[in-house]
Each structure stands twice: as C-alpha cells, then as structure tokens.
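REVIEWER CHECKLIST
Item 1: Sequence provided? yes
Item 2: Single chain? yes
Item 3: Sequence as submitted:
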Amino acid sequence: MCYVRKTPAEVKAHSRPILTLEQWKRMGDEALDEGLLFLLLTGGEPFLWPDFRELYGYLHRKGALISVNSNGTLITEDTVAWLTDHPPARINITLYGASDEAYRRLCGMDHVYRRVTEHIDRLLDAGIQVKLNASMTPYNVSDMEGIVRFAQERDLLLEVGTYMFPPIRRDANSVGTGDRFTPEQAAHYSLEHRRLTMPPEQYRQYLEQAANGIVPAPGLDESCIDPIDGTVKCAAGRGSFWVTWDGYMLPCGMVPEPRADAVELGFSRAWQETVRQTEQIRLSGVCRSCPNKNVCHSCMAMAIAETGSHAGIPAYLCRMAEAVRDEAAKALTADANHQTDINGKARQG
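Item 4: Structure as written out by the authors:
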C-alpha cells in the first residue's frame, strides 16, 4: 500500500524488477555525494523487505539522517534492540484506529491494535523518537478521539489527515474518486481534530482564523506550502525527490509524473531532469486569485489526483475549504450566543 501499490504477483509481472540492494546502495551513494541529508525510507511496509536492515545500516553509517514510515506491526524486541544501536531520526507510525474493531473495518486484519500499540511503547521505552500519523476515513473516524487520547497520553506528535488522495497511482482511471469523506465531512472532521487537540482559547483563535480564511490547510504533509504564482512552491522537485521501488525519480511521492529514469540516467542526471520538468509545471491561475487560497493550499499532487492535470481546478478542495470557513463561522456564532445566554442568566440571578 501507500507508495508501493502492487501485490507480490504484480511486482513479479511488472516490466521492471524491484531495485536490488546494490542498486539502492549506489543510489544512496550518489545522492549523498550530491548533498542529501534527510532520508525517508518507506514502502509498503519497509520492515518486510529482506535487505532493509543492511540498506538502512549502510546509509546510516554514511551519515544520512533517516526516518522510517511503518505500520508498526513488525517492530519486535529484536528490531528495537537493533534500532537502538542504529537510532533513526524518527519512526513514523500510522495508527489506523484506537481499537481492534477499527483495524478490522479499515485494514481487514484482526488483533492488530494491541500489537501495534505495544510496539510503539517498546520504541518509546528504548528512547527512539516516534511520530504518529492517522488517516481518517468513514471506516475509522469514530476512533479519532481514542487516537488523540493515545497520542496525548504518551506526549507524541500526531498528524491527522482527513483529505484522502484519489488512488491514481494505483489506477490511472480513478481521478477524482475514492472511498472517502465528502468535502464537507472532511472539513468537519479536520475541525473536530483541532477541537480535540487544542486548548479552548487556542481553538477559538483557530476558528476565527479559519472563518477569515487565513489558516494552514488541513490534511497536508508538513512540508507543503501554498503555490502563489502558479509554480510549485513546496520542496517537491526543488529540494526533495522520491525514488520508486522500480527506480523512477519523482518530484513528489503522491504524483505519477513527471518522472525520470534514475536507473538509466543515474542519480545526478535524473535529479537535474526532475528539477527541469518541475520548473515547467504551472498550476491553475484561478487558484491564485481564490479568496479561499489560504485555507485550501491546493498543490500539484492534489490537482493531478482530483483532475488529471497540474493545471486543473480541484473542486473537492474548493468545497472543503468553503466548508471549513462556513463551519468555523457557525461554531463562533453558536459560542457567542451561548456566552450571551450565560451572561443573561447570570444577570438575572
């Protein structure tokens, strides 16, 4: 899942094989020579790969600051002991629910929640930095409060996403589709997450900012920022890149193109080609002048996923941004009316 959307049988039948350990090492050497510092290893589930430890250890010894994305199911005592000797910058664990029932609904797996949470505690006891990610869907949103509580009890950074990308990297015909919230529901739950995690006064300030259209967008990666002049303004293809399991370089892990063949070209030339192609991308001019642009922050990846084009207008995001502002304004009005009612009763008393 995630950044490798194929079954083992599909990988075997694919026109290109998965990169070998030696190819990954060579790619890492070339990237480090070009100035790479921060490195994210992800999958699928990276701990499933037989050569994961050897590659990780090799790049760790080379000085890369490595983070790992994991679902947390394979982090055994032996794994934690090994990581303690080769500490990552961070382990990012996706928590799919706060109960076995939620994991069963969303992932089709039984008896997983307890195992994952035990593994998280094992990492924390070993002094390894952990961040939690949670993707909210109709199948697990009832567990959002439990996920927040779990993170708060352990003082863990938690990133919650209520916007789900259409799965175009798996199926090119799935532009603008997906088993996900309506835009209005995605907006509602993004605000609900803020309510659960912010002190009351801070949450009220957030609502005021949202109603005025000046808050960071919900559901984006922490490195994404708003495109102002139609060009790509995040790090994608400018200061960061992805290399897929079969050796193609992308500016962003959420897009299927533009891509450069890092096996054929080598890292340096593939990076130069990625930068060149990224600089040519232009997003919709309509988004630049939209009054909700500081709430929406539509990006290249979203435009492609929702419309099939860099320059497309992602209507789902338009509706979500409008709903965030509307719901924030209504919440502020309801709170003001409630305070008026309380003050009135107090004077009568």
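Item 5: Key structural point noted by reviewer: The two ends are 60 Å apart (CA to CA).
Item 6: Recommendation: ____
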